[in-house]
Amino acid sequence: MQGPFGRRAAFRYRAAGFLLLVAHLSFVCWLTLRPVNVPWVSPATLEPLATIRADLALSPWSAARSIGGGLLLLAPLGVLLPLAAGRVEVYPLASLVRTAFTGAMVALGVALLRSEVTGQIMNMDSVLLNTAGVVLAHLLVVPAVRACLRRRAYRRRTAPLPRDDGAQAPTPTIPRVGIAPWSDVSSGTRT
């Protein structure tokens, strides 16, 4: 975005993205890092897809609830990370890779912190599901929003400038030059 209005808008988008990102991560920490009182705790699950297979074996409702919860927990990061970066003109694959990597690192960090809390365990499937949720949210929302912002910026750049008196400026016209009237000047005679 160019011009002073574009810079202000980009700053507002970045600030809003950063504040929402901090708020969401605070909520995730509050939700996942609370101690749980249970009579026993299962060991850490470091085998990929083991918990997902166990949930699918129990019941479809249990599987949908645990898999859906895993996908949705960090999914807003897929939108909030690019929003906090504030870039509209960016290569889509690079944005996806940066967002997926950051989402995976946040998911791994939450899982590691969670393993230190009483009653919580380290689960590799939660890291995989959280990362997949970030990627899916990014793919579903960010390209469409960036395209909309690019169209809006293009319209703003190509729109006619408003006049001070509130009236719409007339369309500029180019005067046409017609055929010149007959003249003695070209013949070289004077009258």
Automatic annotation (TrEMBL):
Pfam families for this protein: VanZ (PF04892)
InterPro entries: Teicoplanin_resist-assoc, VanZ-like
TM spans (from-to): 12-33, 63-84, 96-115, 127-149
Keyword terms of this UniProt record: Membrane, Transmembrane, Transmembrane helix
Chain segments carrying region Disordered: 159-191
Domain VanZ-like: 22-141
Protein name stated in the entry: VanZ-like domain-containing protein
Phylogenetic placement of the source organism: Bacteria, Bacillati, Actinomycetota, Actinomycetes, Kitasatosporales
